[in-house]
Design brief:
Strand content: 5-15%
Order of helices and strands: HHHHHHHHHHEEEEEH
Structural class: alpha+beta
Length: about 290
């Protein structure tokens, strides 16, 4: 590892995030030993830094957090590529091999403690980013306050980026599905307040997303920090698939039904069928 280069990249990432924070709300993708792990590590560093900024961390804390996030998966260097990129379900033995990477990463970092600043902190992030708040994680089964505070943030960024990335064994999930998995299906895995902070500031419904709402079919036209679950939408068709002329612009944050307004995200084949049936590309409504 070129430590000076990594420190320089860390500082550049932080400067960009701090100066252009509002631009990061659209961040759902920055897109691989393997090139995927490299891209994933950069994504996780940026998302972790964003979380640190939102939590009001000091410059030193942000530097430690961002550098630790970039190195969180360094232990995967010791994991065979055929396991990392296996398209099918892992065997118990293969999953056991994967579960060694946090400890392997911490060991590699500590072997460089004479060169790396804050090696103990960085090693803790690598070692603990798969621990769960409820104690059901690995490798040590730590819970709650036993887990490094930076590792808790990196854990959220790590899983979010993994869910929203294409891998040999899965498609890329949209942010709204990632939110559902992390907040509901994986309850107990993450610090709930930090998870809420993250999803309130990363777009659940990026601009251009097609939604089925209680008001009709709509396209997302704008998102605001702190209100990403209630974007501004342009309703262009009613629930009977009839176009509305003129379309309606609604800021869901200002409606009484804001928590229940969005019923579904229209994706993939359903979206293609929807566009064919209406004979119009909904992105047209973003032009005017």
């Amino acid at each position: 590892i070129d430590v000076s280069a990594m420190q320089s990249v860390t500082n550049d990432l932080l400067l960009d995030i701090i100066e252009r924070r509002n631009n990061l709300i659209q961040l759902t993708d920055i897109r691989l030993h393997d090139t995927y792990t490299f891209a994933h590590s950069v994504n996780v560093a940026i998302l972790s830094a964003l979380l640190g900024v939102l939590k009001g961390y000091s410059q030193k804390d942000l530097q430690q957090l961002t550098m630790g996030a970039m190195l969180h998966d360094v232990g995967k260097i010791d994991t065979p590529l055929e396991i990392l990129n296996k398209p099918g379900r892992l065997t118990d033995m293969e999953f056991d091999a994967i579960k060694q990477h946090p400890a392997n990463g911490a060991l590699r970092i500590m072997e460089m403690q004479d060169q790396l600043p804050w090696a103990n902190v960085l090693a803790s992030i690598a070692a603990e980013h798969h621990e769960h708040i409820d104690g059901q994680g690995y490798p040590r089964g730590l819970r709650g306050g036993q887990i490094n505070r930076f590792a808790k943030l990196v854990a959220i960024a790590d899983v979010y980026d993994a869910l929203t990335s294409i891998r040999p064994y899965k498609k890329a999930y949209p942010p709204s599905v990632a939110h559902n998995i992390m907040a509901k299906l994986n309850r107990g895995q993450f610090d709930p307040e930090t998870l809420d902070l993250f999803f309130n500031n990363v777009a659940l419904y990026p601009v251009g997303t097609i939604l089925k709402t209680i008001f009709g079919y709509a396209i997302v036209s704008n998102i605001e920090f702190g209100h990403t679950s209630t974007p501004t939408i342009i309703v262009f068709a009613n629930l009977d698939n009839k176009l509305i002329d003129p379309p309606l612009t609604i800021n869901l944050s200002h409606t009484e039904e804001k928590n229940d307004a969005i019923q579904a995200v229209i994706l993939d084949n359903d979206l293609r069928h929807f566009i064919h049936e209406l004979n119009i590309d909904p992105s047209y409504y973003l032009l005017g």
